[in-house]
Automatic annotation (TrEMBL):
It holds the Pfam family Ank. The keyword Hydrolase does not apply. It comes from the Eukaryota. This is Ankyrin repeat domain 2.
Length: 284
């Protein structure tokens, strides 16, 4: 009988069946090549700087970034990648974009900036970097929202504080006349509401429907926020623009016994002068 012919292995799949030792050697070889490439680019950059050959410096970009011991090359970052990086908190990508002269105030199709996106997602480090690199804190998106509105919607106290430290207006309005306090109340971020009140945010401002933050808190059953607003002196007598006008107290449903009790207690305190009426002035 004829001798058996050994099956021929497909070269394209040979690496799939390699031994663990061979796979480890291949990985080590790749890492060594990356390190060597990194050293070469560092030497090129050093030589360019030493000899003042500034025209060679751009050739040394891509910048070397070190992550988990691996050397990675970065390519130029465009505006779309920059915007996505702001949403995802990728500081390194943003740094490359800005270092290459990218516009920190680039806007997407909804006129949102990177600062809007980072503020919404709660990336404090990105927000700080953008502000330091010239991001405009007052730019509006299509709905008239500024970065401070997005921060209050996202619920990051660190971002709100960072924006305020750079001059953000805590009483600014969007196209619906909503203030940051309205937004934080609707989204239920109690710590943000407390911070805004401590900074002197106007608590009786009314939106386009005539609702104050207290109207919103009662309607959405935000009991803790109702207590905060009342303790700060929110006016329970302000009527909104619905029908003939409804106060926050008149919005209370029968099942909202805790809120009703709190509002009634406030009225009694006002009757005996414990709560100053001047804290309840209407703010348009």
């Amino acid at each position: 009988m004829g001798s058996k012919v050994a099956p021929v292995k497909n070269p394209s799949t040979a690496h799939d069946h390699a031994s663990p030792a061979a796979a480890f050697s291949l990985q080590s070889w790749r890492q060594a090549r990356l390190r060597q490439r990194g050293k070469s680019q560092c030497q090129m950059l050093f030589t360019a700087l030493k000899t003042q050959r500034r025209r060679q410096i751009p050739r040394c970009r891509p910048v070397l970034l070190h992550k988990h011991g691996d050397v990675q090359e970065t390519r130029p970052v465009d505006a779309a990648e920059f915007m996505n990086a702001a949403s995802q908190g990728k500081v390194n990508v943003i740094d490359v974009y800005l270092a290459d002269g990218g516009n920190p105030n680039a806007q997407d199709e909804l006129k949102r900036t990177a600062l809007h996106r980072a503020s919404l997602e709660g990336h404090t480090a990105v927000v700080q970097m953008l502000l330091e690199k010239g991001a405009d804190i007052n730019l509006k998106d299509q709905l008239g929202s500024r970065a401070i509105h997005c921060a209050c919607r996202g619920g990051s106290l660190g971002v709100v504080k960072a924006l305020k430290s750079h001059g953000a207006d805590l009483n600014v309005r969007d196209k619906l006349y909503s203030t940051p306090l309205h937004v934080a109340t609707r989204t239920g971020h109690t710590t943000i509401v407390e911070y805004l009140l401590s900074c002197g945010a106007k608590m009786n401002s009314r939106d386009r429907e005539g609702d104050t933050a207290l109207h919103d808190a009662v309607r959405l059953n935000r009991y803790k926020i109702v207590k905060l607003l009342i303790a700060a002196g929110a006016d329970t007598k302000i009527k909104n623009h619905v029908s003939f006008g409804v106060t926050a107290s008149q919005q209370v449903k029968q099942w909202q016994s805790d809120i009703m009790e709190t509002l009634q207690r406030l009225e009694k305190l006002r009757e005996v002068g414990v709560v100053s009426p001047e804290n309840s002035s209407t703010e348009e």
